[in-house]
Amino acid sequence: MEPKVEGVTPYRPGEKREQVEEMFDSIAPAYDFMNNAMTFGLCRYWRNRALTIAGKEAGEAPVGSILDVATGTGDVAFELLRRFPDARVCGVDLSEGMLTVARRKAASLPAADARRVSFEQGDSLQLPYADNSFDMVTVAYGVRNFAHLDRGLAEMARVLRPGGTICVIELSEPVNPLLKSLYLFYSHKLIPLLGRFVSGDKSAYTYLPQSIAACPQREAMTLLMRGAGFDACRWKSLTFGAVTIYYGKKRF
User: Fold this and answer.
1) Distances (CA, A) of 44 to 7, 36, 138, 227
2) Minimal CA–CA distance to 109: which of 154, 79, 142?
3) What is the pLDDT of residue 14?
4) How far apart are CA 36 and CA 181, in angstroms?
5) Strands 88-93, 230-238: parallel, antiparallel or unpaired by DSSP?
6) Which sign, positive or negative, has the C-alpha torsion 235, 222, 234, 165?
7) C-alpha dihedral over 156, 160, 165, 168, to 10 degrees?
8) How far apart are CA 42 and CA 44, in angstroms?
9) pLDDT < 70 positions in the chain
10) What are the pLDDT digits (tens) for 6-44?
11) pTM over 0.85
């Protein structure tokens, strides 16, 4: 059975892939501001915690190539550049609107760093890379937008070398009943209003909490990861469960 997240779409019933692309093209100019505003700046902390652990997961193995799936405006890709100074980082995303912002940021990097990063449009279900191409694959706040989550995880496993590390950062719902009720009020009532005011697209920020609720979380996500070809899968929740980080190694 496919995860129910695949039936949650931003605008209308129908094909999810095209709607996700349309949605992110629409909100691209306001995306970075909204991320910081919605999370009270915690998105940077979550990213840094996740990538610190990902670096430890890689251990002594050389990390020469990293793929950031659903790279958006490139913030994770740029942090990977900083943390892995010998690596080449490739960011891939459906939305040309988001990639335009990422490339604009890349243009302001020192020349040596700019040569190590690239951004291209591509579908997470059909990644335009050969098997075993990358030492690490990351995806931040993207898997709930995949049209088919199991296929997206399998594609990331395909392009990752055996023994390579995957790091998934995804929003999640708190488990504590009181905290969950506060979270639901904030995410379902206040975020759509803020989204409409800042980006002009209320539907995109109504879709956000719906897609979080529908996405497999914690043990359910690691079960899917194992089914896609990863071992040593585990998760760690931060900020009372509002975000969960998942790690694994591609099976030999």
Assistant:
1) 29, 8, 15, 30
2) 79
3) 85
4) 22
5) unpaired
6) negative
7) -10
8) 5
9) 1-3
10) 889 999 988 999 999 999 999 999 999 999 999 999 999
11) yes
Helix (H) or strand (E) holding 236: strand 230-238
Distance separating the N- and C-terminal Cα atoms of the chain: 26
* Cβ–Cβ < 8 Å for 38, 45: no
Q: For residue 232, count CB atoms less than 10 angstroms from its CB and return exposed for 0-12, middle for 13-18, buried for 19 or more.
A: middle
The tokens for 130 are 């050969």
**Which pLDDT score, from 0 to 100, does residue 194 have?**
87
Contact yes or no for 140/50 (Cβ under 8 A): yes
DSSP state letter for 144: G
Q: What is the DSSP letter of 72?
A: T
- What Å distances lie between residue 176 and 40, 179, 218, 240, CA to CA? 21, 5, 14, 8
134 DSSP assignment: E
> How many residues are there in the chain?
252
* Residue given tokens 């469960």 in the structure block: 241
250 forms beta bridges with 230
Q: Measure the CA–CA gap between 147 and 184, rounded to whole angstroms.
A: 24
Say how far apart CA 54 and CA 170 lie, in whole Å: 15
Question: Can you read off the two tokens belonging to residue 87?
Answer: 């690596």
Tokens of 64: 């020469």
Which pairing describes strands 230-238 and 243-250: parallel, antiparallel, or unpaired?
A: antiparallel
Write the single-letter amino acid at 206: T
SS3 per-residue string spanning 88-126: EEEEEECCHHHHHHHHHHHCCCCHHHHCCEEEEECECCE
